[in-house]
Amino acid sequence: MLETIEQTRQQFLSELSQADSLEKLEQVRISYLARSGKIPALFEGLKSVSAAEKPILGKSLNELRGFAQAQFDAKKADLEHTAKPKAASLDLTLPGRPRPVGTKHPVMQTMEEMKRIFVSMGFSVAYGPEIESDYYNFGALNFPPDHPARDMQDTFFVSKDVLLRTHTSPVQIRVMEKQKPPVRVIMPGRVYRNEAVSARSLVMFHQIEGLYVDKGVTFSQLKGTLVSFAKQFYGSSLKYRFRPSFFPFTEPSAEMDITCYICSGKGCRVCKHSGWLEIVGSGMVHPNVLKNVGYDPEKYTGFAFGFGVERPTILRLAIDDIRLLYENDVRFLKQF
Amino acid sequence: MKISHSWLRKYVDFKLTPQQMVDGLTMLGLEVESFEDLAKKYDRFVVGEVVERAKHPNADRLTLCKVNTGKEIQEIVCGAPNVAAGQKVAVALVGATIPHDQHDPEGNPFVLGRATIRGIQSNGMICSAFELGLGEDASGITVLDPDAKPGTPLSAYLGQTDIIYEIGITPNRADCLSHIGVAREVGLLSGRKVRMPGVKLKESKVASSKHATIVLEDKHGCPRYSARILRNVKIQPSPKWLQDLLTSVGVRPINNVVDVTNYVLMETGHPLHAFDYDKLSGHTIVVKRAQEGTRFTTLDGKARTLNGETLMICDAERPVAVAGVMGGGNSEISDATTNVLIESAYFDPRSIRKTSKLLGLSTEASYRFERGADIGITAYAVDRAAGMIQELTGAEVLKGVLDAYPRRRKPASVRLRVSRTNQILGTSLSQNEIKGLLSRLEFRSAAVGRDSLTVRIPTFRVDCSQEIDLIEEVARVHGYNDIETKTLSSIDFSRAVFSDRAETDIRNYCSNAGFNEMVANSLQDEATAALAGLPTVKMLNPVSIDMSTMRASLIPGALQIVRHNRNHGNKHLRLFELGKVYSVGEAGSADPLEQFHEEDRLLIVMSGKPVTAGTGVTPRETDILDLKGEVEALLSKVCLDKYRFIYYDTRSALTDSTISIEINGVEAGFLGRVKGELARKFDIDEHVFVCELTLEGISKGMEGERKYVQLPKFPSVTRDLAFVVDVAVTQLSLEQAIRESGKPLLASVILFDEYSDEKLGAGKKSLAYALEFQSPDHTLNDREIDQVIGRVVEAARTKCGAVLRG
Questions:
Q1: Terminal Cα-to-Cα distance of chain B (whole angstroms)
Q2: Shortest Cα distance from B679 to chain A (angstroms)?
Q3: Distance from CA of A311 to the nearest CA of B (A)
Q4: For residues B426 and B486, is the Cβ–Cβ distance under 8 A?
Q5: Taking the alpha carbons of B634, B637, B639, B642 in that order, is the dihedral positive or negative?
């Protein structure tokens, strides 16, 4: 008999746990607790047991009935709570009270990320004017007067000797003029080129320039610094290459390419089917530039580099028209 | 520039695939931007014969042609007016990639499909020269030679089986603006030697020196002038191989003499010019500067005005060419020419650059002279050309090169230190290794001591004149990727790293506070920039009138953005920008930059509804207090209590209801509502609220440390007081009266209600405040508080005429 009580208890619990609606729960109640249920049936069975067993079995049966009733009540409350909220006025599916959600401009996000990485490598941040003199933008950077290198720069002029800087490189000169080595800075900012605006080019855009001058700075370290940056910015598995290039203010000059992350190097429209993306122009600071700021090029060497900001931004976000960046349509801005 | 694979093979034996060429040259600094396999370009293009031409049954302007494409007769719909039966034509078969789409404004390529045109299926396309990428003519189909064989692949018919590389040559590598120059780099890649083409020349007995004179009046502008005279030249079109070769690298064939000079240009990189000898008065060449204001008609038929700096080639009487840039119409080769003088000179790069800029004229010749030609090969180049013309035409070449070269230049020698090389590159190359690397570039060097080399620079390497130039060459030949990649293990962090905290903090705050960051163009049209009411910075050479002037305030540009957004249905705007404004002051000092000013600013813009509809949200329009609240929150966050609003004497060109903002006692900006007439200029018919602050002001406010203030030990007591005052009395004056009179127990005053209605009476309003009282040393009792309230009520009455409301 005791075994039967225990079995009934187990069966009850099992059926109760499977009851996932009030209807099913009612079925459980009927089959165990109602007048014709299994538990009252067991009480009926008490009549036929010996007097010695009766008190023990009676106690067990009473416990079972109390337990079953309590379990049933708890389950019922639980199911009722789930089925409908307590008050009709509190519909939890209502939207939360609206709060405006702000965003940072995608170009600024890229800029902040680039700055963060270089600051973590010990670079300070410096700024310079956008309205710049011919000397700082060209002359001090070893662009000889009338040199064809200036063909590479389509410049806005404000007056004969004053222009909108075409790159952030003039800030290198301003920093070095003010400070003795070691110099370790990045120089973010807006730059301007007198070009037709298209889906691929803008008149105004952003660069981040970098400069490190000290005793014993080498091309080898230039590579190390840029690779370390690129791994943090583009992912540690990237493949890269350095190839010779030309800038009047660095020598040797180098472009760093990474495997095109759009096509994984297979060749696509973005990388002009080369499999490579050019990410940064760089080089060892030209001795003439060091002389122009009063540094001894025999004592100090350095490297410089310049990143574009817009291009990695549009590639990262899969934006197909660079002009969208500066239309400032909030439907666009809110996406990032 | 365009470089032909097969042409390179004339000078160097190499077995490199196009892809190996692309990678190899790029890694040497000659960036191959693309390459074109001409045989592949005309895949599925064949010679066809128009067998029959009939009108298209459903279109007046179209014809339906039956075209024999070798294997079969195809029906092709054609729209060209000049198509006729019997013609041999270029046919693109289905699947061909047409190089230029005539109907696309940018002429992009497209893949030809099987098309049904006005109900008739067309199984190909008869192409125009434009569509084939063979010329600009798009007016009709291109007609091929009558003896072309139908079915012949078009590339075979055109002789186009070459591979053409498009190489971006950096300005320092003037030596690579030719096939021989690029061949040297290919030699470096493949380890093969470069062969200079030989000169085959039979000179006559007549000495050229008796038939022409060269006078260098300007030896600085022209340090060397070499020339050859050829007689009995028959001017005619060049043979097809020469025409095809020139065409393949983008040079238009003209006649045999001009084509040979262009061939030698593309071969050696040295620009030549051919004169009609008989048109040179006095058979004399004089190199000198032009007379200021001289008018001269160049080969392209344009009359140009020269200045006193322009270097000219003249005969005994008049100018005949702009030196190094373009020849003159008065002495050019014509069909009637029989005698020719070929010029092969070296001109000073700066002089040519100035002239090219002055005339706005850049030619293959000027491009090379500007970057630096090879003074050592003028005689070789002219011999090479004379030999070729003789071979093509049987012309007589007079004896001797006329070679005016008054100061022979010695090849430069540069000292290169091994230690310096390793100091710059971070390598550990030995003297011998460096010597070996340089020898691969035809740089001969001799050891001087243990650490140095004396390096002889070939005359074609005009970019190498300093030690650092040679270090770059060492790195290039060694291979940039073979230089070890080291991290900056030696970085010293003892110096403070300066970051731009203010900008970052403000950007973080504003974006977290629900504002969207915009970045506007700092270049605007003049009228928009002028709205700021300040002297503006203008471009001398704007790219367009829309971007001619620099912004003097962030507000007008933001209004353009508000307009753009409203036009696109975005009416509820919360925007901010961190950017510069620019202005110009009085000129005067020696420093030309001193009169220009740049200032970093923050702009906050609100328009439309502050929050859009939602449960329990009553939609309403933004008002100035919304903006004021946002600005207070921002400034409290970043500037603590160092800011102050100024309500009097506030005028702004752009806003009304203006409140000035001081930070640390210095004016830092303002907030207000954009004037209605200004907003309407931008087609905005809704209120726009703006706040413009200087970043400097905010950063000054951010300086200094925050210090802990003791938390109160005893409980505070709050009492509410409502006053009725005249409408003209400001809340601020009443609040100040309360604060002053409540000292020292009054800890805070918060306005919680403001209204006016009929019951209060006309011209009256009610202001209700919650006053919090607290003492640092004991719990306040009612009597103490009542005393303070008595003082407060009295002060409110005497200072503001306020009556306590029952």
A1: 92
A2: 18
A3: 16
A4: yes
A5: positive
The answer to whether the Cβ–Cβ distance between B596 and A162 falls below 8 Å is: yes
Residue B315 forms beta bridges with which residues? none
With a pLDDT cut of 90, the percent of chain B lying above it is: 79
Q: Between B426, B519, B561, which is nearest A108 by CB?
A: B519
Q: Looking at beta carbons, which residues of chain B come within 8 Å of A334?
A: 516
| Best residue of A213, A214, A330, A332 to probe chain B, by most B CBs closer than 10 Å | A330
| Confidence category of residue A94, pLDDT binned at 50, 70, 90 | confident
d(CA B654, CA B691): 11
Nearest-CB residue to A101 (from B29, B488, B514): B514
Q: Give the strand pairing for B717-726 and B643-646.
A: unpaired
Q: Cβ contacts of residue B312 below 8 Å, gap of 6+?
A: B287, B288, B289, B290, B294, B296, B306, B319, B321, B322, B323
Q: What is the C-alpha to C-alpha distance for residues B42 and B47, in angstroms, rounded to an integer?
A: 11
pLDDT tens digits for A257-273? 999 888 888 888 888 88
* Radius of gyration (C-alpha) of chain B in whole angstroms: 41
Which residue on chain B is closest to A275 by alpha carbon? B23
Q: What ranges in B250-396 are assigned the alpha helix state H?
A: 256-268, 349-359, 364-371, 378-393
CB atoms inside a 10 Å sphere around CB A279: 23
Answer whether B155's CB lies under 8 Å from B38's CB: yes
Q: Do A190 and B521 touch (CB under 8 A)?
A: no
- Report whether B722 contacts B805 (CB < 8 A): yes
Q: How confident is the model at residue A54 (pLDDT cuts 50, 70, 90)?
A: confident
Cα dihedral B136, B142, B146, B152 sign: positive
Q: What is the mean pLDDT of residues B98-112?
A: 87
B370–A148 C-beta distance less than 8 A: yes
CB atoms within 10 A of CB B715: 9
- Calculate how close chain A gets to B353, using CA atoms only, in Å: 7
Share the mean pLDDT of chain B.
92
Q: Residue A10: enclosing H or E segment and its boundaries?
A: helix A2-18
Contact call for residues B314 and B328 (beta carbons, < 8 A) = no
* B491 contact residues in A (CB cutoff 8 A): 121-122, 184
**What's the predicted TM-score (pTM) here?**
0.82
- pLDDT in the model for residue B574: 96
B349 neighbors B371 (Cβ within 8 angstroms)? yes
Number of H helices, E strands in chain B: 22, 41
Cα(B701)–Cα(B661) distance, rounded to whole angstroms?
A: 12
Residues of B in contact with A166 (CB under 8 A): none
DSSP B434: H
Chain B residues whose CB is inside 8 A of the A187 CB are none
**pLDDT tens digits, residue range B608-650?**
988 777 777 778 899 999 999 999 999 998 887 789 999 887 7
Instruction: Measure B585 CA to nearest chain A CA, in Å.
Output: 13
Q: Is the pLDDT of residue A85 over 80?
A: no
pLDDT category, A149, cuts 50, 70, 90?
low
Nearest chain A CA: its distance from B38 CA (Å) = 17
pLDDT digits (tens, 9 = 90+) for B203-245: 999 999 999 999 999 999 999 999 999 999 999 999 989 998 9
The pLDDT of residue A88 is: 59
Rounded to whole angstroms, the Cα distance separating B90 from B87 reads 10
Name residue B673's beta-bridge partners: B656, B689
Q: Is the pLDDT of residue A147 over 80?
A: no
**What ipTM was reported for this prediction?**
0.84
